[in-house]
User: Which sequence fits this backbone?
């Protein structure tokens, strides 16, 4: 049941979001309540519009109001270069770095024996089908996966699955720390890591 106090209910909802605790949520709510016409009502309208319009791209899995998304529809992107990422937040991080001018593919996670995540839980088959049907043919797949045990396991699995397709498979190199997540790295680090990618052996 919602909190009968609308202020506390709003604080509780905001506090669930990443980067918000109850203290920061309380400050945000107070700021909005002080200027409801300028801060709160436009935000409510934008949230409602986004909830109704935004959806996963049927090609890459990005979130956009258009389907296919703007990246997949952009004729200036390199159609023969696909960057595979764990989630949408990593895709957005790479886009902020302006370091990748190809396409993307969102896996929706990484393989995890402990977490019970297998290949059937990820968008692996759509990636393989996409590469098989691509025109022009895909020449390179960049595995921009986290530098973790699960990320490495996923990279090895994808490399084995992609090898028969005859595409070059590369991974991010320098700049990405062990255990680091892409969406918290700065743009310069991401750009350096993409430029220094290397073939997967």
Assistant:
């Amino acid at each position: 049941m919602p909190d009968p106090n609308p202020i506390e209910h709003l604080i509780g909802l905001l506090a669930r979001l990443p980067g918000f605790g109850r203290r920061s949520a309380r400050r945000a709510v107070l700021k909005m309540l002080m200027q409801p016409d300028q801060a709160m009502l436009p935000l409510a309208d934008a949230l409602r519009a986004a909830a109704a319009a935004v959806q996963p791209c049927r090609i890459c899995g990005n979130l956009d109001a258009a389907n296919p998304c703007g990246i997949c529809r952009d004729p200036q992107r390199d159609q023969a270069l696909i960057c595979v990422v764990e989630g949408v937040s990593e895709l957005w991080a790479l886009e902020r770095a302006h370091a990748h001018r190809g396409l993307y593919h969102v896996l929706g996670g990484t393989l995890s024996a402990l977490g019970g995540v297998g290949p059937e839980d990820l968008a692996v088959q759509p990636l393989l089908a996409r590469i098989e049907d691509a025109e022009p043919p895909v020449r390179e797949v960049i595995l921009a996966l986290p530098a973790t045990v699960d990320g490495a396991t996923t990279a090895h699995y994808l490399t084995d699955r992609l090898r028969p397709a005859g595409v070059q498979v590369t991974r991010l190199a320098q700049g990405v720390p062990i255990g680091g997540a892409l969406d918290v790295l700065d743009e310069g680090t991401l750009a350096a890591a993409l430029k220094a990618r290397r073939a997967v052996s």
About this structure: The CA atoms of residues 57 and 68 lie 5 Å apart. Helices lie at 6-15, 22-34, 36-53, 70-73, 88-97, 124-133, 149-162, 187-195. Strands lie at 55-56, 63-64, 78-85, 102-106, 140-144, 168-171, 198-199. The chain has a mean pLDDT of 91.
